[in-house]
Amino acid sequence: MAPLVLLIAIPLVAIFATPQPAQAAVAPDAEQYRRELTRIVHAEWGLDGPVATFAAQVHQESHWKFNAKSPVGAQGLGQVMPSTATWLAQAFPKTLGKVEPYNPTWSLMALVSYDRWLADRIKARNVCEQAAMVLSSYNGGLGWLIRDRKLASAKGADPLAWFGSIERFNAGRSAAAFNENRGYPRLILKRWEADYIAAGWGLGVCS
Questions:
Q1: Each residue of 32-58: pLDDT tens digit?
Q2: Which residue of 53, 66, 67, 94 lies most exposed, with the fewest beta carbons within 10 A?
Q3: Average pLDDT over residues 19-40
Q4: Active-site entry in 44, 61, 129, 180
Q5: What is the arithmetic mean of pLDDT over 56-77?
Q6: For every residue of the chain, which 3-state class applies, written as one string?
C-alpha cells in the first residue's frame, strides 16, 4: 500500500473510531420526531418539561417505529393498547379526538397525555421516583401500582419511593409480567434517558 494511502487512512480510522455512545444509543428513526415530541411535551408539561424522558420512553416502547405492533396488540410509537387508546380519546377529546394509534403525532400525544394523567394521581418523594411509578403504571396499569404500594407499606417499605422500595414487592403479577414491569422504569430512567440528554433532547427527570 502506498504511503499516501496510509496517511489518508489513519486519520479516517481515528475519526470513525472515536466513541459516540450517546448518539449511537439514540434510535436512527428518532430525529424526525424530535421537534414534534418537544412541542407536545412543552404544551402539556411546560417549557421545562422532560423531553428526554419521554424520548427514552418512546425508545423503549417502539424504538421509534411508527407502525410497531406488539404480539399482544399494542400499537404505534407509544405502544398503546386498543382499549387504552379508546379510553384516552374519550378522556382527552380536544387533544386526541378519534383513535389513530399509527399516526405518529396522535401516538406521541397519547403517551404524553397518559403520563400526565398518571402523574396527577401519584405522589412520590421526588420527580424521579414519581416518574418511575408513572412508567410502571403506563406499562402495567395504575391498579397494580396501588396494590404493590400497599404491600410495600405493609412490609415497612417507603410507599413514596420506587427504587429499592416499591419495586421489590409483587402484589400478584406473574413472574414474567413482574420482571418486565420492573425493568421498564429502570431502562427508561437509568439507561436511555441519559443518552437522549447527551444527544441534546433536553431535560430528564432522573439523569
A1: 999 999 999 999 999 999 999 999 999
A2: 94
A3: 81
A4: 61
A5: 97
A6: CCHHHHHHHHHHHHHHHCCCHHHHHCCCCCHHHHHHHHHHHHHHHCCCCCHHHHHHHHHHHHCCCCCCECCCCCECCCCECHHHHHHHHHHCCCCCCCCCCCCHHHHHHHHHHHHHHHHCCCCCCCHHHHHHHHHHHHHHCHHHHHHHHHHHHHCCCCCCCCCCCHHHCCCCCCHHHHHHHHHHHHHHHHHHHHHHHHCCCCCCCCC
Q: Which residue has the higher pLDDT, 117 or 20?
A: 117
Q: Which domain holds residue 60?
A: 22-198
With 0.90 as the threshold, say if the pTM is over it. no
Q: Is residue 16 part of a domain?
A: no
The amino acid that residue 174 corresponds to is: S
Q: What is the dihedral of CA 79, 54, 186, 91, to 10 degrees?
A: -50
Active site residue 61: yes
What backbone torsions phi and psi does residue 69 show, to the nearest 5 degrees?
Answer: -140, 125
Name residue 136's amino acid.
S
Q: What is the CATH number of the domain that holds 55?
A: 1.10.530.10
Amino acid letter, 21? P
pLDDT in tens, 75-89: 999 999 999 999 999
Give Cβ neighbours of residue 193 (< 8 Å, ≥ 6 apart): 52, 53, 56, 204, 205, 206, 207
